[in-house]
Amino acid sequence: MIPQPKLVTLPDGRGVGVYEYGEPDGRPVMVFHGIPACGAGFEWADTPARERNLRLIAPDRPGVGLSTRQPDWTVRDWPPIVTALADHFGVGRYGVWGYSGGGPHAVATAAANADRVTAAVVAAGMGEMGTFATADDFEKTDRQLLGLSVKHPLAARALLSVTARGAKLSPKSAVKSFEKQLNEADAKVAATLGNPRDVMALFTQAFLKGAAGVVDDYRATAKPWGVDFASIKVPMKIFQGTADTMVPLRHAEALSERIPSAEFETWPDEGHLGTIAHVGDILDWLAPHFD
User: Fold this and answer.
1) Where are the domains of the chain?
2) For residues 251-261, average pLDDT
3) Cα angle value 208/175/223 (rounded, 5°)
4) What is the mean pLDDT of residues 33-40?
C-alpha cells in the first residue's frame, strides 16, 4: 500500500507534505528523504520504529510532493521549515535522520536548531558540493541530473517528468531499470522491498505537483550548504556502507573529520541501500538520546 502525505500549512502559508511512520505517540524523529525521492520512501522503517517507541516524521522538501515550491532555496533554508513543522505538531525536542540527499539537510538542521535537536544521524549522506564533493563522484544518473539542474533546469525538468510518468505507468519496468544500477549488495536489499508500485512510490510521489521542485532539490544540494561544521555540538553519528556506489565512502569520511561531535561507523560490504538493512542500528543509536 502506497503511503499518502498529509498536507500541513505553516504559519507563513506554505504547505508541507508529511508522511508519518512508527508509533504516533512515540519520541519524535524528523526524517529527511533522498533525491529524487520523497517522504514516501520510509515504509520499511515503520515497524522498527514502532518497536522502539519512535515516531518518524518525514517531510517533503520545497516543491517535492505536496510541498509548496520555493525556487532558489538552499540547504540552509531547510532548518526554519523543520522548526515550524515541529511547532505545528507540538514537538519540542526531536531527533534528526538524513538519508542520502537528506544528509546535508540533517547536518544543517543539527547546526541551526541545536536547542531542539537531541541527536542527528547521517546515513549514506551526500557530501558538500564545491568543497569535498563533486558531481563526478556520483553514479551516472545523479551526475547527469546534478549538472542539468544547475545549467539547464528546463531540460532536467523534462527528463524527470518523462521518467516519473513512465515509472507510474509501468512500475515493474522502472524497478528493472533501477536494479541495473545496483551492485550485488543493494540488489539483495531491493529484492525485499515488495511489489514494484510500492517500491517506486518514493520516486513517483515526489512528482505530485510536477518536476520543478525535484530539480530545485538537486540544485540546492549542488551548492555549498552554508553550514559551519566546526560549530556543531549536537551528538551525531555518520553511517556509511563501504561498497556504496551511489555516494562514495570518502564523503562520509570527510564529513566526520569536519564535525567535532561526530562518530563514524561503516557497514562492511554494504551499498547505498545498506541503510534499509541496518535501520535498527540507526534507530538504536537515536533512541537513548531522548533519555
Assistant:
1) 6-290
2) 95
3) 55
4) 96
